[in-house]
Amino acid sequence: MKITYPSQRLSLRFFMLMLLLFGLQVAYGLLLAAQQADPTLLAGTLNFNVIRASHLTLGILWIVCGFVGATLFVAPLLARRDIAAPALVKLLFYALIAIVIWNVSTQVLSMRGEAGWWLDQPWLINGLEYLEGGRIFGFALLVGFILLAFIVLRTFPPVKQWNEVHWGLGLGISALVLVWIFGLFYVSRLDLQEYFRWYVVHYWVEGVWEVIHISLIGILIVLMFKASVRSVGFAVFWGITLVWLSGLIGNAHHYFWIGTPEFWQFWGSFFSAMEPVPLVFCFWHIYLDAHANKRPLENAPAFYFILGSTVLELVGAGILGFVMTFALTNAWSHGTWITAGHGHLALFGTFGMLGIGAAYWAVPAVRKAPDFDQRLGKLGFWFLFTGILGMALSFAFGGMVQAYVIRILGLEWVGGDVAPAMGVFKLTLPLFGFLFAAGAAIVIYDLATLGKPAPVPSEILPATGWRRPLSGFEAGIWLAFICLFGMVITFSLLAFNLPRVRVEGDPTLPYLLGGVGYLGLFGVTLGFVLRFTASLGARLRTPAPAAPTPDLSVAT
Length: 556
Prior knowledge:
By secondary structure, the chain is mainly alpha-helical. The protein is built from 18 helices and four strands.
């Protein structure tokens, strides 16, 4: 685990910026949890909507920093040469800092209703979820993406020499520029504005980011396990193809309630149900690559976070996305905490964990610390993984209470009827939030100081019992239970349509199914990752023949 080209060191600054913004986002999240308990906290100084907008935007920005860092680390390996424009990389870094400062400082203008209107466009604040920044922020980010695309494509070899991994990463980076353009204009008609806003949220975040995610995971798996570039390239190709085939029309599940034609309810439901398929495929290839040659797990934290990214992509983006995007379930989940549970697991679980995993692979290489102490990294992973699962569980249960109290009983949030009913979940949410924050602090400290502690030898663990090798059949059983509990959750939301619930107001069935489904899903997810990582732990000191790093630039 060492760098091959000097320009790979340029990735380090982006990973450090990623950690800083991650910590800031977590701090905003804790403040949001406190304001859920006491709505008067900082009222008039930092209102809930301002903190929430900053929390969400910072999440996007630090994940983008992780993508940039990971891409700059692997691009020279794909090109077999140093980065073509190192001066532009440094310019991009300082531009990102300026963009972050501008965005955070302008959010407070929303408290005074100052959007900076000029030429019928809001230049300071946009006020749309996920697209909070005004036109200045949007155009600045566009320039940053253009710089990144130019650097990567200029570094890559000629197109005729590309393999599937080149195509995946090249298309993903290019699409960052193209799809973001849909977020650069404002339309006064709400339904049309929402139509184009979801182009950005779904295609840019859930589509383009998925392409980059699949490509980077493929590259990191090749580096970690010396897997076949041809085999991984095959998985990257089909993963990207399936993501786009299911995701293009699947975007229609955002069109159910904004005044668009009714036929979107069928097509949005149908293709949204297909979206977990490529995520299952992505995970299954991770399993095959990790077990192909039974090589030792040299960098446990890096693989833990990549495994967590893939599993939570399946559970958070796939299963929970599937649960809430049928028209008959979305009618109840839309606008509730159920959406927040899906959003946290999908955004941090999929993309955030990938950025942290890439950092745990790249930072030791840049700092020449291949034998770093891995205990803090693994501890931080379990805190983060358990914390985000617990937060999603709290959001999910709280959302079911919201759906019942608001849409069945017809009580109002403004009147204070909903808050008491959600009291338990407003307590468990910050508790798991503090666990998550502790994990974030551990990971930030560990990566920021990595290389300084004395190396600690890995413990030799017997490959028996819980640590026995994980077979494909057993992994399939775990996946089957994940899907089974996902179906139970789907039925819990469908149950709201029954006359017994909708007319008579009896919540027993949806609450019972929701309790079984959500507790089962998160219990199995945690158990599966525990089992998977334990099965690899016994390979830490297993003798294995040395293998050269595969040539990622080879066309397949």
